[in-house]
Write a structure and sequence with these properties.
Blueprint lengths: L1 H16 L2 E7 L2 E2 L3 E3 L5 E2 L1 H13 L2 E7 L1 H10 L5 E5 L14 E2 L4 E9 L13 E5 L8 H6 L3 E5 L2 H9 L5 E4 L1 H10 L8 E2 L6 E9 L3 H13 L1 H10 L4
Length: about 240
């Protein structure tokens, strides 16, 4: 009888540990925040944070990088995603198709800004006719200006492509996170001054959140994790040179 109880407890523990946590990630290299390019592994602060959350909760983390529009479609269908990261209430309104999502507390604060070649610094809004952005991202700080027309929004596959197009003068400016751009410049073997933030052009302080369509209880558990492990997460941010 005792053996049966031991086996039952072991089986229960195994099943609980094996509960999957299927997180859809934007299929991009956005290091130091996250890098989730299929076939290239995972890296960055937010990846380490998600791994720490899954370990604490006894969940088996499954990271599934996908294009942004497919992420929302799969999340809303509820077939193969439990959570989506990163997300923000101000992003991808059309992709949400009018559905209400549950959002966590902020995971990390980020700055999205407008960057230009050094020779274009300080030329102002009038000098920006073609603005580049990663496909599926939202140029939040530029929305009022884009609505008025006069600025063409050019969507490309990744940050590397944005930098190359800016270098060839096919874009007047790019909209991205400056730390991410600096990381990509190093990867391309380019000097850090090759692309610079222009403080006279639109920028916004925003934040990354975890979202879910059908699992508000997971969001509550995640928020508790953020609160109770704040000291550990602060140390983790420092490892990735994030404020």
């Amino acid at each position: 009888m005792r053996l049966c109880l031991i086996l039952a407890c072991w089986l229960y523990s195994t099943l609980a540990t094996a509960e999957p946590l299927r997180v859809g990630l934007e299929n991009h290299d956005y290091y130091p925040y996250y890098s989730a390019v299929e076939g290239q592994g995972f890296d960055g602060y937010c990846i380490a944070l998600l791994q720490a959350f899954a370990k604490r909760e006894g969940l088996e983390l499954e990271l599934r990088p996908q294009p942004v529009n497919r992420l929302y479609r799969n999340l809303l269908n509820g077939q193969n995603l439990d959570l989506l990261f990163p997300d923000n209430l101000a992003w991808a309104r059309e992709a949400r198709d009018g559905q209400t999502l549950y959002y966590s507390q902020p995971v990390v604060q980020v700055v999205d800004a407008t960057l230009v070649r050094p020779e274009r610094l300080g030329k102002g809004l009038a000098a920006v006719k073609r603005l580049g952005i990663v496909r599926g991202f939202t140029a939040e700080a530029w929305q009022p200006l884009l609505a008025k027309g006069g600025v063409e929004l050019v969507e490309v596959q990744d940050i590397h492509s944005l930098i190359r197009m800016l270098e060839r003068n096919r874009l007047d400016a790019i909209y991205a996170n400056p730390q991410v751009v600096q990381h990509q410049l190093r990867q391309l073997g380019l000097d850090a001054t090759h692309v610079q933030l222009d403080p006279q052009l639109p920028q916004v302080n925003t934040s990354f959140h975890l979202s879910s369509y059908k699992h508000p209880e997971l969001i509550k558990r995640f928020d508790r994790f953020l609160l109770e492990e704040a000291a550990q997460l602060n140390t983790l941010r420092q490892q990735f040179n994030l404020p």
